[in-house]
Design brief:
With about 260 residues, the chain is an alpha/beta fold. The chain is about 45% helix and about 15% strand.
C-alpha cells in the first residue's frame, strides 16, 4: 500500500497541474468566495459528542485501491440524503477519481443538496486543492500526514482555516500523532489501517489516543462495523467515527447507519 500511495501522489500532482491549466487559481478563488459559508464540521461533531450522541461521519465512497469496486449501484446524492435522514452528523465525500472512482461533482451536488457539513476526502497536496474544496462547497478538508511534509501540511492547514474550513488531520502511528500535535487543528483522525500490512485494528486508536491532549477531537477511522466497536473506541477516547465501506456494502447505507445508531 505504501507503493500504491506513492503512485497515487504522483498521479495527483499531474492532475493538479492539469486543473490549474484549465481553471486558474484566481478564478477558483472567486468561486470559493461566492460559495455558501462553511457549516461548521468540527463544531457539529463536538456538539453531537457533548450531547452524548454517536457522531458519525458517513462516507460516500464507490471504490478503494485496496478493495476495488465497493458499490456498483452508486447514487451519491441518494446515499447522502439517506445518511442525513438516518442520523449522520457529517458526510465524507470521495473526490479522487483514478483510485476511488470519485468525482468533484459528487461533492458539489451533495454540499448543495444536504444541510450536513461535508468533508472533501482526497489527497491534498497543493493550496489550489484547498481553494477548490471550498469552491465545491466543502466545509472541511483531510490532510494525510503520511503523504505530507510538515511544512506543506502547515501551509495547507492555514489555507483551509483562512477560508473558514476545518481540517481533519489523519495519523497512522505515534510519529504522525506527534507531528499532528504541532499543528493548529485539534480535529485528529486516527486511521486504524496499517499502510504497510493493510491490517485494520482498533488497538491503533487505543494506543494513539493516549498521546492526544484533552482538547483534541478524535475521529476513529476504519474498522468500525458494530456498536461494540463504537463502545470500544469511545472508551479509548474517540468522539467521532468515520465509517464508509461498512455502510456502502449494505443494501441501504442510510438504514445501515440507522441500525448502527439504534
Amino acid at each position: 500500500m505504501v507503493a500504491v500511495l506513492e503512485q497515487i501522489l504522483r498521479m495527483k500532482r499531474t492532475h493538479i497541474e492539469r486543473c490549474k491549466a484549465d481553471v486558474p487559481h484566481a478564478a477558483l478563488k472567486e468561486k470559493a468566495q461566492q460559495a455558501t459559508p462553511p457549516k461548521g464540521f468540527a463544531r457539529t461533531l463536538r456538539r453531537r459528542a457533548a450531547d452524548g450522541e454517536v457522531a458519525v461521519i458517513a462516507e460516500v465512497k464507490k471504490a478503494s485501491p485496496s478493495k476495488g469496486l465497493i458499490r456498483e449501484d452508486f447514487d451519491p446524492l441518494a446515499i447522502a440524503d439517506s445518511y442525513q435522514t438516518h442520523g449522520a452528523a457529517c458526510l465524507s465525500v470521495l473526490t479522487d477519481e483514478p483510485f476511488f472512482q470519485g468525482r468533484d461533482a459528487y461533492l458539489e451536488q451533495i454540499a448543495a443538496a444536504v444541510s450536513l457539513p461535508c468533508l472533501r476526502k482526497d489527497f491534498m497536496l497543493d493550496s489550489y486543492q484547498v481553494t477548490e474544496a471550498r469552491a465545491l462547497g466543502a466545509d472541511c478538508i483531510l490532510l494525510i500526514l503520511a503523504a505530507l511534509e510538515d511544512e506543506t501540511a502547515g501551509l495547507l492547514e492555514r489555507a483551509a482555516l483562512d477560508l473558514g474550513m476545518d481540517v481533519l488531520i489523519e495519523v497512522h502511528d505515534e510519529a504522525e500523532m506527534r507531528r499532528a500535535l504541532t499543528m493548529e487543528s485539534r480535529l485528529i483522525g486516527i486511521n486504524n489501517r496499517n499502510l504497510k500490512t493493510m491490517e485494520v485494528s482498533l488497538a491503533t486508536t487505543e494506543r494513539l489516543a493516549l498521546l492526544a491532549p484533552e482538547d483534541a477531537l478524535l475521529v476513529c477511522e476504519s474498522g468500525i462495523t458494530t456498536r461494540e466497536d463504537i463502545a470500544r473506541a469511545r472508551a479509548a477516547g474517540a468522539q467521532a467515527f468515520l465509517i464508509g465501506e461498512h455502510f456502502m456494502r449494505q443494501n441501504d447505507p442510510g438504514m445501515a447507519l440507522k441500525e448502527l445508531l439504534a
